[in-house]
């Protein structure tokens, strides 16, 4: 075990925790936040989600979301440089899943919908229909992020354990 191995293993473990944390946040939205907002009067649900979307773009979520991607990529690179065998491929798998299913879906699917929702006034004539469609589509896409975060966490966890063995 050379000097970089503890750092690589540590970064891989942090990636597992970060992916699990982010996946857990998305799970909470899929499991009860969005169903709760969907059960509220439509204008109230729409306004509440607009507030959530504004609050989400702040350091706690942004650091966890994008920091996990950066740390996971760094872990995979360090494991590869060290010749960590199969651990490299588990970490690469975690990074790829996280990039595609969590970050990619967030940027490519959720951000455009959130920006469109931000432009809707609660008293707009089509606000109720927009909110209903948004809540359904957004939640379906969010399931992908929740599962992707959990899967990436498992892959990074296996990478860390494999690197230790």
From TrEMBL:
It comes from the Bacteria. The chain crosses the membrane at residues 12-38, 59-81, 87-109, 146-164. InterPro entries: Anthrone_oxy. Keywords: Membrane, Transmembrane, Transmembrane helix. The keyword Amino-acid biosynthesis does not apply. Pfam families: Anthrone_oxy. This is Putative membrane protein. The lineage of its organism: Bacteria, Bacillati, Actinomycetota, Actinomycetes, Micrococcales.
């Amino acid at each position: 075990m050379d000097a970089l191995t503890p750092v690589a293993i540590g970064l891989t473990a942090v990636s597992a925790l970060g992916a699990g944390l982010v996946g857990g946040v998305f799970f909470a939205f899929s499991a009860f936040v969005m169903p709760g907002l969907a059960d509220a009067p439509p204008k109230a649900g729409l306004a509440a989600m607009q507030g959530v979307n504004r609050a989400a773009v702040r350091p706690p979520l942004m650091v966890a979301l994008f920091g996990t991607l950066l740390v996971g990529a760094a872990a995979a690179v360090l494991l590869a440089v060290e010749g960590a065998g199969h651990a490299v491929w588990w970490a690469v798998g975690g990074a790829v899943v996280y990039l595609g299913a969590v970050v990619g879906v967030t940027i490519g699917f959720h951000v455009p919908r959130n920006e469109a929702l931000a432009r809707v006034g609660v008293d707009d004539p089509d606000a109720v229909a927009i909110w209903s469609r948004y809540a359904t589509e957004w939640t379906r896409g969010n399931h992908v992020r929740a599962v992707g975060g959990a899967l990436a966490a498992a892959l990074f966890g296996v990478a860390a354990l494999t690197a230790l063995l």
